[in-house]
Structures are given as C-alpha cells and as structure tokens.
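Subject: complex prediction, re-run

Hi both,

The earlier run crashed halfway through, so I resubmitted it with identical inputs.
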Amino acid sequence: MHPTRGGRPSLALSAVLAVLGGLLLTGAAAPADVRVAEERVTTADGVELDTSLYLPATTPAPAVLVAHGFGGSKASVDADARALAARGFVVLTWSARGFGTSTGQIALDSPDHEVADARALVDRLAGRPDVVQDAPGDPRVGVTGASYGGALALLLAGLDPRVDALAPVITWNNLGQALFPNAAAAAPPPADTPAHGIAAPDGVFKSGWAGLLFSAGRDETSDEPGAAAASAGPANPCGRFTAEICAAYTEAATTGRISPATAELLRRSSPATVADRITAPTLLVQGEQDTLFGLDQADATARQITGAGGRVKVEWFAGGHDGAAPAEAVRDTVGDWFDFHLAGIGDDPGTGFSYVVPSGVRAGSNTPTSRTLAAPAYPGLPGAAALLTTPLPLEGDAQEIVHPAGGRPAAITSLPGLGGALGSAAGRISAFAADPAGQSATFRTPPLEASLVLAGAPRVQVSVARVPGQPAPAEAVLFARVTELDPDGRRTLLGGAVAPMRVPVPADGTPATVTVTLPGLVAPVESGNRLAVSIATTDQGFTSPVEPAVWQVDVTGDLIVPVVPGTSATASTVPLGPLVGIAVVLAIALLGWMGFRLRRRRATAPVAAEDGPPLRVSGLAKTYAGGFQAVKDVSFTVEQGIVLGLLGPNGAGKTTVLRMLMGLVRPTAGTVSAFGQPIGPGSPVLARIGAFVEGPGFLPHLSGADNLRLYWAATGRPAAEAHVEEALEIADLGAALGRRVGTYSQGMRQRLAIAQAMLGLPDLLVLDEPTNGLDPPQISAMREVLRRYAARGRTVVVSSHLLAEVEQTCTHVVVMHRGEVVADGTVEEIIAGGGAATFTVDAPERAASVLSDLAGVLSVEVVEGGVHAELNGTPRAEAVRALVAAGVEVAAAGPRRRLEDAFLQLVGEDRTP
Amino acid sequence: MTPHTTTESTRTPPSPVTRRSFRPERTLPVRVELERQLRRRRTQVVFGLVVLLPVLLWVAFELAPDAPPTNSLSLVDLATGSGLNFAVFAMFASSSFLLVVVVALFFGDTVAAEASWSSLRYLLAAPVPRARLLRQKTVVAAVLSLVALLLLPAVSLVVGTLAYGAGDMVSPTGASLDYGPGVVRVLSGAVYLAVHLSWVAALALLLSVSTDAPLGAVGGAVMVSIVSQILDQITALEGLRDFLPTHFDDAWAGLLGNPVDWDGMTRGALSASIYALVLGAAAIWRFQRKDITS
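This time it finished cleanly. Structure:
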C-alpha cells in the first residue's frame, strides 16, 4: 500500500518509511547455502550406518552430531540439521543401528554398540579438514538429539571426552527407573532440587509406553535395501531388537516386574552410569508434558553433572512425549548453545533455569497462553539457591479403596503416543475419564489464599494399611496424582501424569508409611482453587497386579509443593532500534513543523502597499484538472463605493472568478488583489471581504443563531465587531432563528447566508445570485440593502444571470461569457451607448437609406422590425423627423440597448446550441 | 426583510479596524470547533455506544446460559473473573473494529462533512488558514478519539468492578496482577491503542481532505484496516507482516504480563508513527494545494 500520491514530498517520505521500516525487522535468516553429502559408514563390528554430512557455506567449522529419536531415522532430524548448518556448523546425522536403512540391531543406546558407533563418527570428523580441530584427533564437536538421541548424546559425552558441548532433549537418566518407576520410599532422598524424584527399586511396569516403544522398534521393517539383512521377517516378534532386549521385554511384559538381569541391561543404557564424567557444558531440555521421561530424569542428570563439577543449564518447555514436540524456540536455544560453546558466537547462555507456565486458557491461536519464567540457576544445584517449598495442609479421612481383580477397569490418565495431538490442543491435559468408582481416595487442600505456581515434583506422605477381613497381596501397587479443583467443581489433572508406587504392607495390619514424589509438573493455581491428591489402585498405562485387594490409605502431613521464583523471560526491555526510530520520526515531524512555520511567516509578511482598489482582477485564468477552461484572461477593477454586477449566463465562469477571489481555487494564471493585497488561500485580507458564493453552507444540526455565532467565533475576531443585530435584521428570520438550520426553507437559508456574509460589515461584500429563492418584496428590500451598503463607502459585487437584476441594483457591470469579459462599464454607459439609437419602423430598408443620408450618421444596421443607427451627435428627434418626412412610420425611437442586446444574444446562443 | 437604518449616519470610508483585529492564529479556536463537533448527533451516538458497550457485554454474560463445565477456561470465563479482566476483555473485543471505526469517524468525517455541508468554503474564506483549519480539526478529533478510547476501559472498569468485584487481573498467560496496578495497566493499554491508532487517524484525515463524501473517508480508512488485518492472518507472509499497520494492534497485551513486555508496543508505536507521519504529511500537502470546489 502506498499511501501518498506522486510528487516530491511523498517520494521523500516513502524513502523515510522504507529506512525506518527496516528497523522493525530483526535478524531475518539469510538463505543458507548448505551442501549435503550422504555416505554409508561401516563400523568395527560390521554394521553399515547411513549418514548425511551437512556442510555450511564456510569451512572449517565446528561440528554437531544430531541423533534421532526412537523409531525415526536420519531423515527425521533433517530440519534440525539444516537449521544448525545454516548457523555455520558442519552437521552429521545418521540412522542409528536398527533404524532407517542402517543395518544392525537395536541395543538401546548401548555403550558397546550405538555409543561406539557415535564415537566412530567423531573419529571420522577428526579426519576432516572442514571441521575445526582442537587437537590432532580431537574435533570441535557438539552433540544433540531428542529422547533416544538425547540419551545417546549424554552417553557419548560421558564416554568420549572429545565432546565439547551437548544439548540432550526430553531424555532419560535411568531407563530402568523410567520404565519401572517406583515413586515411594520409606526413607526418601532430600527434596533439594525441584523435581528430585524417588528412584526406588522394583517399580511398576510402564507397560503402555513400553509396549508402544517395543512395537516401534519391531515394526521398523523398512523395505529399503540394507534393512532386509537385519530384519528377520514380519513373523519375528523381536523385530530389529537384539535378542537380549527382546527377551527382557518379553519377561517384563509377562511378569510386570523388573528382574535383576533386565535392571542391569537397562542400567547400561542409562546416562546415569556416566553422567558424572560429563565435563562439557550441557543444556538439558525436558518437557512438562511427559509421562515417559518426566522432569525427574533431567533433574537427576543435572544433579549428577554438577555434582561432579560440570555445568548445566536446565529448560523445561511446554511439551514432551505427551505434548507438543520441541518447537522453534527449543531449536533456537540449542543453536545458541552451540553458537556460544562451540563457535564462540553470541552471548553466554549461562547456567540458568527457565520453565514455561501454561495458563490453561483456551484462546485464539494469536493469543499466547503461556509465559516463560527464568531463574538464575536450577535450585538446589551446587552454587545455586536452595529450593523453596510451600506446605499445603491436606484434608480428608483415611479411605478404603478397592483394587479389582485383574486390574480392570483402570483409570485413564494419559494416552501414550496420542498425547502429542491432545497435548498441543490444550495446555494442561484434563482427566479424560472419571475414576472407576471406589478405586481412589482423594485428599484436598483448603482453597488457596494466594495464587501459586507449582514448579517441580510435590511430595506427600502416604500410609497404606490392610483392611481386616479383606483380601490383599503382600504389596500394594498404587498410583498417586495431583489435580486442581476450582470452585465450580472442574477437575484438572496437573502434569497429565501419575506416580506409581509399590509399597510392601505389613501383614499385621499396621500401616506402611512412605513418602511419595508426585510427577514433576508446572502449573499455575489460582487463589480460591484447591489442590487434591488422589491415590488410585489402577492406571491404564501401567501393569497392576491381578489379585483383588482392599487398602486403607491416608495422608500424613502436608503436601509439599516446590516453587521456583522467576522473572518473566520475555523481552521486557524497550528495544533500542524501534525507540531510536520513534525519536527520528518525532524529530522529522518537529523539523517539518518548524520549516512550515518559517515558510508561512515569510509568505504572510504584509505587502507594503496598503492601498488599492477594493478588487483588482488581472489576467485571471483557470483551467480545472480535467482540462476544462472555466476562465480565460479576465481583467476588471472594482472601485470603492460602487455596486458591481457580474453578469453572465450560467457557466460563464462567474462563480470560478468568485472562488478565486475567496482564495478557494488557485488561478492558473493572473492575480486577484483586494485593497492592494494579493489574494491566495487564507490571505489575511480575506477578513475584509464578506462572501456568499454558490449557495449557503451551514451546520444542519445547529440553529441559525448558533451558526452565525460559531462562524464569527471561528474568525477569531472580537464579538463586538460582528454587528450581529444588523445582520439578523437582514436575515429577517424571526423565531426561526432558534430552529435547526436543517429545517429551513431554501429562502431562509439564503437570507441567513447573506447575513453571515455581512457579519462584521466587510469592506467588500461579494454576493453570488443573492436573490435566488427570494420573493419579490424580499428582492426589492435586498436591492435597497445593497445600495445603502455601498452608500456607506463600502463596495458590493453581485453576480447574476438576470439582466433586470443587475440593471436595477448595480452602478457598474462586467459582462462575462464563456470565461471572458465581453463588456465592462457603468450601467448607464452601457445602456445609453455613444449616441446609438434604435428605431422601430414599418419599412426598415427605406428607413436605413433615409438615415444613411443624414449628415453625421456613421453606421446603419437593419434588424428585424427596425434599424440601429450610430447618430454621432445628430439629435434623435431630427432623425425621427427625417424618417416621418420620408414616409416611414416610426413606432418607437430610443437609445439602443446594447447591454440587453449583447446579453440576449449570449443567452440565445447558449439556449440553442 | 427590513433594510437597517441605524448606521445611516456613519458614512465613512472602511475603517481599518478589521485589518488590525484579524489574527490568523486566533481563528477557529479549539473550543469553537469542539462545540461544533460535540453538538453533532454522531458524536453523541459514538460516546453513547462506548458507554453502552460494557453494559451490553455484562448483560450478554448474565443472559448467557451456563455452559456445561469444561476442563479449561475460555476467554469469556476469564472475562467474568474480575472487573479488570472484564475491562481487558471489553478492550480486546473492541480494539480491532469498534475503536478503529470511532477514530476513523472522528478524523475522516471532520473535513469531508464540512465539504458536504458547503460550510468548508466559508470557514476558509473567513479566512481560517488551511493548515490551521486542519490542525484545529485534528486537535479536536484527537481529543474526541482519546476521550472515547479512555472512556471505554473506564466504563468497563466501573461496570466490571460492580459486577465481578475488584479481584486480581489474570492474563491469558496466567500472570496475575493486583487491582491497583491492574487499573494503571488497563488505562495504559488504552493510551497505547491511541498511539497505535494514529495511523488510522492520519489515513482518515488524508481521505477526508481528498473527498467531499464523509462516508467515503470513514469507510476507506476502516476498509484499509480490515484488509490489513486479513493480510496479517496469512502467516506465510512472515516478516512482511511487520509492515502491516495493524500488525501490532494487540501489542498492548504486553502490559498484562509482569514485568511489562515493551517490545511489541515499541515496534507498534514506531510503525504507527511512521504511517501517521507519512499519511499526515500527505494530508497537509494535499489540503494546502487543493481547489475547494464543494
């Protein structure tokens, strides 16, 4: 959109707009020139890996390994790789063994297989001249990846000291603990960090997720070449998993328990074994909606790395395995992390902690419904502030809950694998289905007095006891969760997750008391709402025992919720560029205003010659934009004290002359001056001119009196100068003066407009067709008014298309036709002429010859029914005598009416085109 | 009509009084223009509407049948949480159209209506210098617009506080703010809207001096705003959308957080001031050179 029309100023301003507008945009990514080279790499144990190397525009450059998630391949990280390559990194991606077109079997990030593969890839980078080398055989390299790839990043960094920076995303610390969680312990670890989970042994099998992941690995039957070698065919229940993994899964799925062998197998695949060896700066990104790898997993990794002296930055984002995938913001954070730690570009991302607080409000896609809070450090880590917690009392008596035989029906709290779709639709996942009756006990806090943002894993003490006379196995498998209750009874499951526990319960009926870590979550709780802790016997996502049971559960003590005070991480400072832009715009506006004032002051400097005729028009011409020539070379002068008639048929250009006289229209050529001052738009001399041109112009919603009052007030002149009474006498509106002008008749408006023109008794009064719409008595009164007005030494210009009007009112006349002056003089002059006479006779031809013979007669003209003759001093009576003597019958003899003739001729021409 | 006789005796040549008493800088004083505009029905209707809107919203909320409880809050649920939230909702509901129309009306109608009544030529021949006429009319239109922009949140606050109490302001992002600071934030939001809508004002003024039809000037400005809002919906335009005049119309939401996010508002103020400068300068340039033929 270009707002201005053509011309110099608009062009200059457009340039300003373009320059300043550029400041609005910040850092648009330049199109990246990235080259990709694919290569199949054979590892020491004979597995072929399908790799892609992304080369940036400039090399040598630091390198980044990007590992893919479970069930994916190198193709699934292509966008991340390109984004990093666009930042200038050499990026290496590969399909892990058992995935994509890589051969081999899935060993779950085993140090001997997948991690060894990654180390071999680092070796290859060490041999490349286009990768920056820290030392011979030691390339500058970072590693990142989500989930399966994130664990690989941690394991690689722990096992290979050549890794210089890493950014694992939504991954595990302890795979056994993640898949077989047990969140209850009689002697819990300290709650020093926000999401310090309890990692008790012998957990409850997370069968929902485990089954999904196993099938994702097993179904990886790619039809691409190379996959066939490892795939044992669709009938194989182990798919592309190693036999070891397959056996462990089969065992867990059958028994629902973790055997020591499985625990050992999963331990080897866990970064927990090597995290204390990581010295490279680590960015830990974990999801707030993640029932697979919760916030406790990143918490444990952070504690391990910093405990051994490493440095971490922790970020919790709104998403995870149950929510949205890491979005652009996470990709940017990871890119910034490598920019600083590998390439030395940008600001130090530091070792802070940030988390996203979702509001739970449903709003349009344009309205942000979450905010990011930042704390200087992850609380509880060495060197960081201690964790703050808030105790909330819990109300509720001990309740008996039933575990149905077979564990069905089970409560549904999450849908593994589908969470992404649901989670991205709403900030917080709601409880989809009500708990099956009798299967859960709920304990509530009183309504909160102040709003609160939970950030981390709340803890609560739970006691479980047998109910006399009811069946119960040796251990209770229970699921704890936190919900928010609002005063209207709406329940929201916070974090979308449950904390499973396996509690040995004494056979003698005494209660077993354990501390339970509830799932790590971030949730704002409004004041007036309650928090509730529910303990249930079943959950769809976990394997629970088949034996029926009845347990009595109670909570002891408060619900301890962690809070992390943070400041809003959104840009709160005023951006400098736009601020400078605003200052520049204001400065331009100020300069323009000052320049304008200066020019106007120069332009309105009074012209020295104070005296001059009331009106002098010279060489005036106007051609309108369409090319219509309304006025061509009009000149006349109006002396003081006369009533001038501007006579001409409609369209003669009278009104255009008057508009130029009022400064409304700019002449194409020539000048108009009044009292010696040139007239232009807004010339001060216009204050001495009162005008009524082309009909009245009033505010229809105001009364006649108000219109006159406000018009005079708009001239800025003292009210005493207005002579309102005299003007109102002329208007003669009586009581109608108080009515809205909108209700006036044409004649009333006309009179009011003439009165307005006469306000302040201007030295020059200009009236355009003043008698239009007036009745005969009013017309005659108007003539009297104008004559008296001029008699007082003032000057009046009246335009009209009626000859009689001008003859009766004016002393002088200017006749216009088609934009030109055709006659100019006093009315008498023009009417009487220089001795010209008209004779109405019966025989014009004979009369003409008689008159021509008279001495002194200059010219004779025969017209219809008579003759015109220029007698040139010969008395008219003598001419009549001569005619009569010659036998010509004279009906009438009089002065030739040149004005009327000229005018009628003009009108006639106009009427017969 | 009776010809007057009172001044018959003063047969003197024109006195130089008028020459001395005319001062261009005194023409069309603000109070005169304000009276001319305030007594117009459309001005009264606009102010009535702005006062009535919060009441209508409240009635609508009261009449709305209770929806079945859902598990998440909608913006309407949020609106009835407190008087402050109600005021914020009323501003969100009206900022993209109603307030645009109000500003376009005050600025677009101001010169074009005079032209349509033919009163413009008498003002200019009074003479009110053209730049001064435009300035005084702009000042008055700005005053009227600002009053309307502030009246809406003020009345919403009163209605909302009476209906829903003086609770905290809770923003869609979940941040909450006390009543006192919340009131300041809401009124600051109205001030931002006033700054941001200056582009509409300048465009309406440019159209107002270019046409004799008030409807054309007002409708043209509103139409450009709507087209810009539609283009702004096309996310594929990416960075180009920053150049759309309406792109930052919701930036005052940055005031609802804690601390205030000044980024969008600063960019919005820059964008609006550039448009206002260019369009306003074009309006002055055009009006200075225009032949008044109305």
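Residues 11-178+272-375 of chain A form a domain with the Rossmann fold fold (CATH 3.40.50.1820).

- K.
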